[in-house]
Amino acid sequence: MKSTYDMLVIGGGPGGAYAAKTAAEKGLSVLMVEKRPAPGVPVRCAEGVGKELLREFMKPDERWVAAEIERAHLIAPDGFRMELNPEKAGAEVGYVLHRKVFDRELVWQAAAAGADIMVKTRACSPVMENGVVKGALLEYNGTVTEVKADLTIAADGVESKFSRWCGVNTTVPLREMETCAQYLMTSIDIDPHATEFFTGNDVAPGGYVWIFPKGEKTANVGIGIGGDRGGKPGIRPKDYLDRFVRKHFPNGKTIELIAGGVSICRPLESTVADGLMIVGDAARVSDPITGGGIYAALYTGKTAADVGADAVAKGDVSKKNLMKYDETWRASYLGKALDRNYQIKEVFVKLNDDDLNAIIHSVAKMNMSEFNTLNLVKNIITANPKVALKLGKAGLKSLIDSF
Q1: Helix (H) or strand (E) holding 69
Q2: How many CB atoms lie within 10 A of CB 38?
Q3: Angle 219-246-99 (CA atoms, 0-180°, nearest 5)?
Q4: What does pTM read for this prediction?
Q5: Over the stretch 172-216, which tens digit does the pLDDT of each residue have?
Q6: 3-state DSSP call for residue 374?
């Protein structure tokens, strides 16, 4: 570890690793630090990503693809099962990854491109000069070292302490922090090529239960519920998940448990500051409906590195000059989809089980050429006048029509 770099990347998840790789390939000296002993551990998501979204950045590799998903099942509160076949599933088909392998591969690629990597290294404070971020104090093995950098990228996940220390308001309202629990289960009867989503306020209030296969008889079985609907014994995410598992997989064996949170709020008001760029979950760019964030992390990581490399080359890392990054991702399909999905989420979390049953039953009868969020909501508006009224009141119809 040197004392100065062109770019310091804080966080070794997909966003941080891809930013480090991209910047190093452009010739910048880069240091990427990860607070955990190894990238990708512990796993902190359901590990699913769309096929075409992933292929935008890389070819899939059998080493880190646990399962290829060909169809999806959406289960209504009353138990009605809607199947989305490959012709209709569209962007919902994809891969379930081995994040422990996938994340490590991205870090290896960053290292191969020339980036320096430090694990079990924690950023404990930013280095500030006249209000400009100029690197960080890094703690490794009990020793604190100052590392200067022309540009710092915060990719430190949903908790994003570093951005907050730099003066960025990263607060997530409690109701918009989805609280989650997930088991990796084996010895369960599942369709190894289908994801399943269970809805209903008795199953997962303000959220859903997911089953993401990771091979024959093995899957991630998890739940996310609204952050304002849990916290007490009996209504924690794990309590709901345990009840679901007892009902659906009484003979299953649990070999891993993870718990955490994912933001389902709007992105940060600004994802840049003087000498600082923010990517991935730290920037609050996870999907407000699904909570998925792998693609958004890769996209914002690459975009930040592209813009950041030019800024470093020009010697201007002011907020004004870095705003091209913020403007680029907001103007992209990702930014527009996040805005649309947030507004849709705000309506859907308020629906009761009767509304959800009506929606899923009606959608099952529809002949959608491709299943995605946009087509789904368009068809819901057509088939469900009651829900359409709620969507209309939220100003969504005009928004949807603009896509």
Answers
A1: strand 65-69
A2: 14
A3: 20
A4: 0.92
A5: 988 899 999 999 999 999 999 999 999 999 999 989 999 999 999
A6: helix
Is the distance from CB of 257 to CB of 183 less than 8 angstroms? yes
The number of angstroms, rounded, from the C-alpha of 345 to the middle of its chain's C-alpha atoms is: 15
Token pair in block for residue 151: 């540009």
- For residue 148, the tally of other CB atoms under 10 A from its CB is 15
Q: Is 44 helix (H, G, I), strand (E, B) or coil?
A: coil
Residue 377, judged by CB atoms within 10 A of its CB (0-12, 13-18, 19+), counts as buried
Question: What whole-number distance in Å separates Cα of residue 161 and Cα of residue 168?
Answer: 10
Structure tokens at 205: 């209030």
User: Could you tell me the two tokens for 389?
Assistant: 């009224």
> What would the two tokens of residue 115 be?
């980036």
The set of residues, in sequence order, having a beta carbon less than 8 Å from that of 238 and lying 6+ positions away, is: 181, 259
C-alpha 318: how far from its chain's center?
28
Helix (H) or strand (E) holding 5: strand 4-10
